[in-house]
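Comment on the following before class.
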Amino acid sequence: GVSLVVWWSLRDQPYPGFPFQSGLYFNGGQNMENDRAKPARQAFRFPFVAYARGGGVFTWGRTPTGRSGRIRVEQRAGAAWRALGTLRADRYGIFSRTFPTTGRGDLRARLLGGRAETSRPFSLSRPKDRFVYPFGDWHP
């Protein structure tokens, strides 16, 4: 149901003048030629999520190109990745499916074919909730 997402900036602002470093690129100077991509950039380019559901795992994602393609969903098993299955993204690049699995390792999506790309791994472990003060380093 999301119709719009707005991101503050593609690149970090000069630090320490600007404390908010929420860009997808580390600021490398006056122009973007010297900027370096942050790991989070891949999560924006190739979004992928996975949630345990009813004895399996529900997956959803979008291809980096926003076009149809074959996707293989993989789960970490120790140091290796094992395929859970293959599916096809629709004409907008959206894909989703619930896969049966008993594993607990991270999941990722791999775009198959011409320019093979891999999403960032998505953990099935729920992170601990923590409070973050949104307006700086303030402690009560």
